[in-house]
Amino acid sequence: MPAHTGAAPTVSLQPRPAAGRYAYRATASRQQPSHCGEHGEHGEHAKLAHALRAHRQLLSHAASAIRTLSAARNELIAQAIEDGITPATVSAVTGENVKAVRVIALAYDDLHPSGLPRSARLSGLQAKSDELRAAETHRDHITERREALIVTALRNQVCDDLELASLTGLTPDHIRRAGRGIART
Q1: Nearest 10 degrees: Cα torsion 90, 95, 101, 107
Q2: Mean pLDDT of 169-175
Q3: How many CB atoms lie within 10 A of CB 104?
Q4: How far apart are CA 19 and CA 168, in angstroms?
Q5: Distance CA 109, CA 75 (A)
Q6: At residue 69, does pLDDT exceed 50?
Q7: Could you say which DSSP state residue 84 is in?
Q8: Confidence of residue 105 (pLDDT cuts 50, 70, 90)
Q9: pLDDT over 70 at 3, yes or no
Q10: Taking Cα atoms as reference points, which of 60, 94, 158 lies closest to residue 182?
């Protein structure tokens, strides 16, 4: 058993973090690392990064709208088949092939005849199919603009492949394929 010396323990006067938590005490300011290429300007990088993030968000909204419209159209297809409209007629109205119409109709097994007239059923199906095609066209335009932004970023060496992949939600391989054959400044 150690002998008691009678001296009081020393107490540190520096403030300590509560409950043993780590406290960061560095005083030197740090600069943020630049993600710009050696020829890129911060303003151009910020504009491209903002545009790519915006396109990523727009594509997410477009994909969500397409999923919603597809589900609604598929339910209308199944209901039309249940109401006795032939798969060939539904195929002609929607633009889907007959086999796809049959597969969609088989996915809904709890439908009952609606009693709507044939013309009302087909006009509703036509309208929903047109909405779906418009949403797909909108998504394709957003994708084309995003690809143009990627090419611009690669051509001007504003961002590297990994940063572009992060900003767009694409894989680095997709970015590399998009950058093949691009003359870089």
Answers
A1: -110
A2: 90
A3: 21
A4: 41
A5: 11
A6: yes
A7: T
A8: very high
A9: no
A10: 158
Greatest CA separation for the chain: 102
Residues 139, 150 contacting (CB under 8 angstroms): no
Element (H, E) at 77: helix 42-82
Give pLDDT, residue 32: 46
Stretch 12-23: mean pLDDT, rounded?
Answer: 58
What digits encode the pLDDT tens for the residues 30-43?
444 444 444 445 78
Amino acid 120: pLDDT: 93
CB environment 56-75: b (16+ within 10 A), e (fewer):
bebbeebeebbeebeeebbe
Contacts of 78 (CB under 8 A, 6+ apart): 104, 105, 107, 108, 111
Mind giving me the DSSP string for 110-162? S-------HHHHHHHHHHHHHHHHHHHHHHHHHHHHHHHHHHHHHHTT-S-HH
- Amino acid identity of residue 182, one-letter, is I
